[in-house]
Structure formats: structure tokens, C-alpha cells
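ok so for the tutorial part 2 we go from a plain amino acid sequence to predicted C-alpha cells. step 1 is just haveing the sequence, like this:
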Amino acid sequence: MDRYSPIFAIAQAAELAEMHPQTLRQYDRIGLVSPQRTRGNTRRYSLHDIDQLRQVSQLSHEGLSLEGIRRVLDLENEVQRLRVRVASLERALSDQVMQQERRVFAAGAGGEVVSVRRGTRVRRANEIVVWRPNAR
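step 2 — the prediction. this is what the C-alpha cells look like for a chain of 136 residues:
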């Protein structure tokens, strides 16, 4: 079970968030905090939803409108998604840097720079080109 698992019925969620169940229904109707639904269309709240409901209550007591609260929640969700993305990109970059550190560069047979694994040699051609037709 994680913090996104839908486990609480509306009565339990309302008690945990210290709100009236009707308030939770209203927030769901306007899309402020939308819990998951069961097959029977019953609302199920997660710990994350409960935290959001508490945050909505706090922001409301501080004087923010419901639209302002929606914007704050949307921005916080976006920040969370971006943090996950940055962490993923940092891991990918770290992996790539580690792979690059295991590689060396050498001159290829035609004079080009090639990447080879450490400890291997570039195959060199020993033949002499006397005449090469122009590529058209």
C-alpha cells in the first residue's frame, strides 16, 4: 500500500480531513480534490487525497478562493511531476557519463574519430589506395 492507494470511504476521509462529507462531495464536483471510484461508483480517498483536503482547508482559512486553491494544487502537482522527471534525467545522465568514462577515443582507419571500449584496438587497414574513382 502506498499513499496513492484508494482505501478510505467518504465518511472516513471526512473525519481524517476534519471536514463534513458534503464538503468533500462539493470539492469532487468542482474538481478540486477528485478521489478514485470503485466499480459501484463509490468514492475512495487515498492518503494523498486526505493531505490535499487538509491543504485545501488550510488555504481556505488563509483567505484563498477555491479557484486560487485549485491553481496552487495544480502548480504543486506540476512541481512534483517535474521533480520526478528531473530525477529520471539525472539518473540517465549519470549512467551515460559512467559509460563514457569507460570508453576511449581513437583514430579510425579512415582518419575519423571513433569510440572504442577501453583495452581494445582499432583495426587498421594496411593497403595503399593508388586510385579511387570520384563519387558522383
